[in-house]
Every structure is written in structure tokens, then in C-alpha cells.
Amino acid sequence: MMLTKESNGYDEARLGFQRHDPHRPEVIFPVTSAAEVQEAVKYAADHGHRIAVQASGHGLTRGSTGVLIATRNFNQVRVDQAAKTAWIEAGATWRDVIAATAPYGLAPLSGSFPGVGAISYTLGGGLGLMARRFGFAADHVRRIEVVTADGVRRNAEDDPDLFWALRGGGGNFGVVTGLEVELFDVPTLYGGSLYVDLADNPTVLETWREWTREVPDEVTSGVALVPFPDIPPVPAPLRGKHIAQLQLAILGDHGPELIEPLRGMPTVLDTVGELPYAESGKIFAEPERPDSYSSHNVLLRDLDADALAILPKTASQRVVGIRQLGGALSRPPAVPNAVGHRAASYSLTVISPGQGDVTGLHREILEPWTAATIGRSLNFSFGPLTPDEVREAFDRDDVDRLVELKDRYDPDQRLTPNHQLTALR
Ligand SMILES: Cc1cc2nc3c(=O)[nH]c(=O)nc-3n(C[C@H](O)[C@H](O)[C@H](O)COP(=O)(O)OP(=O)(O)OC[C@H]3O[C@@H](n4cnc5c(N)ncnc54)[C@H](O)[C@@H]3O)c2cc1C
Predict the structure, then answer these.
(1) What's the average model confidence in pLDDT over 335-343?
(2) CA 324–ligand 1 middle distance (angstroms)
(3) Are strands 293-300 and 373-375 parallel, antiparallel or unpaired?
(4) Closest residue (by CA) to atom 19 of ligand 1?
(5) Helix, strand or coil, per DSSP, at residue 327
(6) Is the pLDDT at 355 greater than 90, yes or no?
(7) How far is residue 406's CA from residue 27's CA, in Å, rounded to a whole number?
(8) Check: CATH 3.30.365.10 for 188-384?
(9) What's the CATH code, domain 3-70?
(10) Taking CB atoms and a 6 Å cutoff, what residues make up the pocket around ligand 1?
(11) What is the mean pLDDT of residues 317-331?
(12) In the CATH scheme, what architecture does the domain 77-185+393-409 have?
């Protein structure tokens, strides 16, 4: 089936979670199989169209025209309990994956929001709730099936270059129809959020920073600065307050002792406790409603105490998300991949809701972090980047190889991924 602008269901099929600059394709292929993906790619080549792919639409940075391959309903997940692996089809979200793995007490390396598409998250590296213990999601991919821009279906693991580039290099090299990931024996986590009012506790960020220097790899955590509006959908204790939300995910039996140093601060809301992995979305408790948003991300060598101290003031009207990296994220994977900047210790993202261009404003907020910046994370970059900015996500030694592989697998620049490695000609 193919939808045109005149078809019923065109708008529903083109709109995803991110509403900043939605796709406006000539035709949409709402695919449910690898064969239909192949048909869509061939149609694009025959008609001289570019190709965009959309699963849940969380990562969309720039609306495309041409052909849109909508994978939302191509979303089955098959679990091999004995092998501890899951086969994930192109459009599955982490919610779909977790629903399939949780009955076996197994968990994938999913992230903060279960509604995010598992494939794009993983192609972009994938920073999950257990990241410091197990590494990037891309480090634990066993197999990838992909349709390249020439319309050929390939098993990427048979082509070391393609397999390397797809795991970390994003959607630049083909349309992934499914991939196999490792699962982990994690039925429960100790986690949740401590919501601290910045007005009463101005040193909360420094307390968290000091704490992260001591914690073992079993602890993966972040902090979000959120200026909550004073309106009813916001939980009453948070309304109208500038909050530091400490987001905690801890493996093993020592969660309560490990977070003891953070317990000294008064909280306005505390959701921390033992929870089934199937409820791990409650840890960050991110909004479910489609919205418009833009962001800029930097990966930091270290978290500078002075820059951190002024952040609540310089970014008082923005959402800021900081995550601790390190641990297994800093170690090379068993099979090398394109994920860059493993030396980064923290990731910092400034996010603005709404439609305006906030590039200048975000740059100002990030200016004090310039000296410590070693690159950027594409998964946390919501908004168009130039190819030069996209390349900053990778290790310098890997950039030439990625560009060469982009030219090899997509010589006509048929694919328009959310983060493009090469400028469109
Ligand atoms: C609320 C929220 C929380 C998040 N939390 C995390 C987190 O904890 N960790 C993390 O690492 N990231 C996180 N992200 C970022 C997220 O992983 C990326 O935005 C990701 O690209 C979203 O994928 P999607 O399928 O949902 O988005 P989509 O917009 O559907 O896809 C994004 C892009 O991926 C490419 N793509 C999609 N499907 C395919 C395919 N089958 N083959 C090839 N390319 C494809 C396309 O270029 C597409 O434009 C979060 C994002 C949001 C909005």
C-alpha cells in the first residue's frame, strides 16, 4: 500500500512524536515487512525521490519530502530465551521490546523513555538505564538486516564495514528492517527520581557531581533541571518550581545504601524504590504527549564545578539533562563499532520546547562548557545539524571511514537520515 497527499490516513502516517518540523512526503509506504521496505526503496530510486524513515518520530530533526517509509506497524519482537537475545523489527519501540522480554526476567539496554524507537536509538549508540554497567546498546548488537539504497537486502554482519558503521553511525547507510540484540538477566531495578527544589537546595548539583565520582558501575544516573509551569497537568508538589530531578537506576541489592549520600537533601517528591524493569519508564517519568522541541548536546571530559554552579541561572527557562557516562561506556566493545567519544564522562543537553530557533540561546548556555567539550551525542541532538557538526559525534580517526562508507552504500544520497554525515548535493 502507498499513501499520497490525497489519501485518507496521510497525516496520521506522517506525524510522529516530534512536531517541530514534520515530514511532508510525496508518498508514504506504511510498511509491515522487509519486502515492503525493499519495494519502497526501489520506488524511490525509480522516481528520483529521496528516502526518510520514521518509527515513532522522537528523533526527527528536519521534515523531508520524497518517500517516507513509516515503520510504526512493522514492530514484532521475538525473544530467544535460551540464547538471551531478541529480534526487533524496524518500528518496535522499547515498550514493545520490554513487553516481550520481561516475562522471562530479561531486559534490553533500553533508555529513559519506553516510547522511543529501539532501532534508531541503537543505531545512534543508545545510552540506556544500565549503560555504565553494560555499555552502549550498539555494543550488544549481534545481527542487522538492512535494505541499502540500491534496493538490496543485506545481512550487515556478513559485511564488516557496514556492520561497523551501522552500530553508532545512525541511519546514514540503509533502512534497517530488524536487528538482534543481547538481553540481560534484570527482572528489577532500584530506581526512580528525587525531585529537589533548587530554591531551597542550591548545592544539589554539586552534591550529585561529588556522588557520581564515587559510585560503582552498577549506578547509572542523571539530573534534569526543569522549570515546571504552575499548571494542573504538573504534579502539585512540582508546580511553579525550578526542580533538580535526580534520575537513578541501580542494579543489585545495595541501592538504598548507595543513594544514602543524596538522602540528606529535602525532596518535594521521591519516587525511588524497587521496581520491575517493565516499569522502568517511571524512573525519568518523561512526558508522553507529542510536542515540538529542539536541543543541543555536548559530551564532556569532566563536569566543571564552576560551570555547573551557574547553570540553573543561565538555563533558568530551559530544560537541561546531564547524564553520567564512564564505566562500561568507556571500554571498547567486543566487536568494534562507530560509537565515538568513549572518553566522555558526562553528557549535557539543553532542550527548549516550542517552534522558535534557539540555536543562539543554546550556544550561550553551553559556552562555559567549551573547554571541557570533546564532541556531541546525536541521539540527544534534536534539531538540524550541519554535516560538520554531525561528524563531531565521532572519533576523528573514524570520520573519513564513515564518509567513505556513506559514499559506498548511498552514492546518490538517496537516504535523508535525521543526522546527515554528508551535505546533500
Ligand atoms: C523523551 C526522549 C527520551 C530519550 N531517551 C534516550 C535515552 O535514554 N538514550 C538514548 O540514547 N537516546 C534517547 N533519546 C533519543 C532517541 O534515541 C533518538 O531520538 C532516536 O533517534 C529516536 O528514535 P525513534 O525511532 O523514536 O525516532 P524517529 O524520528 O522515528 O527516527 C529517527 C531517525 O532514525 C532513523 N531511522 C529510524 N528508523 C530507521 C531504520 N529502520 N533504519 C535506518 N534509520 C532509521 C531515521 O534517520 C530517522 O529520521 C530520547 C529521545 C526522547 C525524545
Answers:
(1) 98
(2) 20
(3) antiparallel
(4) 59
(5) helix
(6) no
(7) 25
(8) no
(9) 3.30.43.10
(10) 16, 52-60, 71, 90, 111-113, 116-117, 119-121, 123-124, 126-127, 171, 175-176, 286, 379, 417-418
(11) 98
(12) 2-Layer Sandwich (3.30)
φ, ψ of residue 255 to 5 degrees: the values are: -50, -55
- Ligand 1 centroid to Cα of residue 116, in Å, is 6
Domain with CATH 3.30.43.10 in the chain: 3-70
| Cα 34 to averaged position of ligand 1 atoms, centre (Å) | 20
The pLDDT assigned to 356 comes to 86
Query: Which pLDDT band holds residue 419 (cuts at 50, 70, 90)?
Result: very high
Ligand 1 atom having least distance to the Cα of 90: 41
Question: Ligand 1 center to residue 59 CA distance, Å?
Answer: 4
Q: Is the dihedral of CA 62, 136, 109, 208 positive or negative?
A: negative
Task: Output the average pLDDT for the chain.
Answer: 97
Residues 305-314 pLDDT 10s: 999 999 999 9
Between the CA of 49 and the centroid of ligand 1 the distance, in Å, is 23
Cα separation values, 421 from 102, 204, 400, 407, 410, Å: 36, 38, 10, 10, 11
pLDDT digits (tens, 9 = 90+) for 65-121: 999 999 999 999 999 999 999 999 999 999 999 999 999 999 999 999 999 999 999
Q: How far is CA 161 from CA 14, 198, 401, in A?
A: 32, 48, 9
For the purposes of burial, counting CB atoms within 10 Å of the CB of 9, is it exposed (0-12), middle (13-18) or buried (19 or more)? exposed
Q: Which atom of ligand 1 is nearest to the CA of 293?
A: 53
On the question of pLDDT at 424 being above 90, the answer is: no
**CATH 3.30.465.10 occupies which residues in the chain?**
77-185+393-409
Nearest-atom number in ligand 1 for the CA of 416 is: 47
| 8-state DSSP, 358 | -
In tens, the pLDDT along 213-272 reads: 999 999 999 999 999 999 988 999 999 999 999 999 999 999 999 999 999 999 999 999
Q: Whose CA is nearest to atom 3 of ligand 1?
A: 113
Q: How confident is the model at residue 423 (pLDDT cuts 50, 70, 90)?
A: confident
Q: What's at 307, amino acid-wise? A: A
Q: Write the residue with the smallest CA distance to atom 41 of ligand 1.
A: 176
Mutate to test the pocket of ligand 1, among 61, 162, 325, 379 (most ligand atoms within 8 A of CB): 379
Which residues of the chain does CATH 3.40.462.20 include?
188-384
Nearest residue by C-alpha to atom 22 in ligand 1: 59
3-state secondary structure of 349: strand
Nearest CA to ligand 1 atom 7: 111
Contact between 303 and 206 (Cβ < 8 Å): no
